[in-house]
Specification:
The chain is of the alpha/beta class and 249 residues long. The chain contains 11 helices and 6 strands.
């Protein structure tokens, strides 16, 4: 049973690594309910979780989760002691703390850019996490930690991503920042002027010019040839007459 569970975990981790670029150390956000379940089932989270996820982990929580555990008093005192040993991630509720579940949901907004895992026993929170793509969900069954299989939302997201229909939100932000850095944002916003293409020659200018005709309808060059021919004939005739005249004398 343990081997089968480990195979499922490895398969699910491969899905998140390949499609959502999860890398070690894996950041796991835990709430009070998960800490309480671990305490009740005698699970050593810090020691057991890296082996289950097959990689280094960073266990973390938020101020809102700690505030919530403090407000619940002695009933969750042990869970509070466990949570206090984790790293505290900054949330946006410093002045006005919210419930632990609401805080964890806010940490995975905008496509979960920090690649958080969510570890909880709160079923309502788990259902809301499943509606977001790319958020691995951890929970405890009896005395075992379980990495839930990818949600339908994550599967649909990956399918669209593979058909080039969708770009992850964190990648959009990276692209925008890169364009601003390179000074390309303004250029794209401006309207591009259409360049005039060099046109071909005017078809009318390619036509051969017609030669002007004289009033007789003959071309000037033909008329000149006839005149030259008559002149030559006349010169020859005069030369012949001159020779005959000299012979008679």
């Amino acid at each position: 049973m343990k081997v089968t569970r480990q195979k499922h975990a490895k398969k699910n981790m491969s899905f998140y690594k390949h499609n959502f670029h999860f890398r070690e150390p894996f950041q796991v956000l835990l709430d009070g309910t998960f800490c309480q379940a671990a305490l009740r089932n005698k699970i050593q989270i810090r020691e057991q979780l890296p082996g289950y996820l097959d990689g280094a982990t960073q266990l973390c929580t938020t101020r809102c989760v700690l505030k919530e555990l403090e407000s619940l008093g002695k009933a969750l005192y042990g869970a509070k002691l466990i949570a206090q040993k984790f790293e505290v991630r900054n949330c946006s509720h410093r002045k006005d703390p919210v419930s632990g579940s609401a805080c964890l949901l806010s940490m995975i907004e905008e496509g979960n850019p920090h690649h958080f895992f969510i570890a909880t026993q709160d079923q309502d929170l788990a259902n809301k996490v499943k509606k977001k793509a790319g958020v691995p969900l951890l929970f405890i069954i009896q005395n075992t930690m379980v990495l839930d299989k990818p949600s339908p939302k994550s599967l649909v997201f990956v399918q669209k991503l593979q058909t080039n229909q969708l770009v992850p939100e964190h990648q959009k932000q990276s692209i925008v920042q890169l364009k601003e850095k390179e000074g390309l944002a303004k250029q794209e916003g401006e309207k591009r002027r259409k360049r005039k293409r060099a046109g071909g020659p005017n078809p009318l200018s390619c036509l051969k010019k017609k030669k002007k005709k004289t009033q007789d309808g003959q071309e000037p060059s033909a008329e000149k040839k006839k005149r030259r021919k008559r002149k030559r004939n006349r010169v020859k005739a005069e030369a012949v007459q001159s020779v005959q005249k000299n012979e008679e004398e």
